[in-house]
Automatic annotation (TrEMBL):
Keywords: Adaptive immunity, Cell membrane, Disulfide bond, Immunity, Lipid-binding, Membrane, Transmembrane, Transmembrane helix. This is Tetraspanin. One of its GO terms (cellular component) is basolateral plasma membrane. The chain crosses the membrane at residues 36-62, 68-92, 182-206. One of its GO terms (biological process) is regulation of cell population proliferation. GO terms for molecular function: lipid binding. The keyword Disulfide bond applies. Pfam families: Tetraspanin. Belongs to the tetraspanin (TM4SF) family. The gene is Cd81. Gene3D superfamilies: Tetraspanin (1.10.1450.10).
Length: 216
């Protein structure tokens, strides 16, 4: 069940419309940074393997097989080690992911404002960011006034006052998007780790109990 839940959460994060709209973008020959998906793929793999290992543990317990329970325990140790490694990787890269996406957006934004946008898809990339995240412009003076003089790039509001008051910078929206997703991944990883620890303890207790009972 835990494996199924983790797999479901990971697949939802992988196919979430906001992240897929942004991370599938291409600016000329440059692809949007998709380091974020590394953590998702690890979660998908862990969830799928946990489901299989769970059946292995259940069958081993029903059959009272020390061999199957020992294999179950070994698989859990390997999964736990992989998850700890993925958690460390995520903690180290959590700020870098948003930073890379913001740099990609800034490059597209500069091209959309200049004549370069005629020869590439900078404007289309920027509009996708703006429409997906409901934002406009980077965190600087140019970004602050962009909605007022480039309404062809920014989401249209009902009035000028709404445009000024309700427009949020895309840097802030990118931070919110990825910090929220990474926070959810972190919670899922912690829950799985706790479940795994209990599974390892209980499988060893059961294995020892079967071995001791077979003596008599």
């Amino acid at each position: 069940l835990a494996g199924g839940i983790i797999l479901g959460v990971a697949l939802w994060l992988r196919h979430d419309s906001q992240t897929t709209n942004i991370l599938y973008l291409q600016l000329g020959d440059k692809q949007a940074p998709n380091t974020f998906y590394v953590g998702i793929y690890i979660l998908i793999a862990v969830g799928a393997v946990m489901m299989f290992v769970g059946f292995l543990g259940c069958y081993g317990a029903i059959q009272e097989s020390q061999c199957l329970l020992g294999t179950f325990f070994t698989c859990l140790v390997i999964l736990f080690a992989c998850e700890v490694a993925a958690g460390i990787w995520g903690f180290v890269n959590k700020d870098q992911i948003a930073k890379d996406v913001k740099q990609f957006y800034d490059q597209a934004f500069q091209q959309a404002l200049m004549a370069e946008s005629e020869t590439n898809n900078g404007r289309a990339v920027v509009k996708t960011f703006h429409e997906t995240l409901d934002c406009c412009g980077p965190d600087n003076a140019i970004g602050a006034v962009t909605p007022l003089w480039r309404d062809d790039l920014c989401p249209k509001k009902d009035s000028l006052l709404k445009t000024i008051l309700e427009t949020t910078s895309c840097h802030k929206k990118i931070d919110e998007l990825f910090s929220g997703k990474l926070y959810l991944i972190g919670i899922a990883a912690i829950v799985v780790a706790v479940i795994m620890i209990f599974e390892m303890i209980l499988s060893m207790v059961l294995c020892c109990g079967i071995r001791n009972s077979s003596v008599y």
